[in-house]
Amino acid sequence: MSLKDTMKEEISNLKEELIELRRDFHQHPELGFEEYRTSGIVSDYLRECGIEVERVAETGVVGVLKGKKDKPVLMLRADLDALPIEEKADVPFKSEYEGKMHACGHDGHTAMLMVAAKILAKNRNELDGTIKFVFQPNEEDAGAAIIIEEGVMENPKVDAALGLHLWTPLPSGKVGITPGPLMASSYYFWLTIKGKGGHGGAPHLAVDPIFCGKEIMNALQSIQTREQDVLKPTLINFGQFHAGTNPIIISHQAELAGSVRCLHDEDARIRQRFEEVVAHVCRMYGAEYELTFKCGNELLNNDAEMTDLVKNSAVEAFGAESLQETDLTVMLGEDFASFANVVPSAFFFLGVGDPEKKTDMPHHHPEFKLDEDVLPLGVEMHLRGALAYFDKSKK
Ligand SMILES: [Zn+2]
Ligand SMILES: [Zn+2]
Question: Mean pLDDT of all residues in the chain?
Answer without folding.
Answer: 97
